[in-house]
User: What shape does this take?
Amino acid sequence: MKEAVKARRAHRSESQWRELLARHQTSGLGIEAFCRTERISEASFYRWRAILKGKRQDGAGVRQEAGSAFVDLGALEPLSSAKPKLDLRLDLGDGLSLHLVRR
Assistant: This one.
């Protein structure tokens, strides 16, 4: 009885994935056809595209995660008579806002 041969997975570096995604942009192929030609899974393609889209390169050539606009306001403690009222309104853009009130 023959033993099943496992396909070896290629472990690509971030720079290799950048190059691969750049090749896709100029290939004129759809993602499915490109992945089949390059012998990569579509899941890996989409995963790496999302990872690299969320990163940027600064002037020093060091890769960093793109910054988020999250601001930690700390924990809200139980209201006591000495604590001031909290009224926080966040404009989330596109006509959407979040309004938090602690009385």
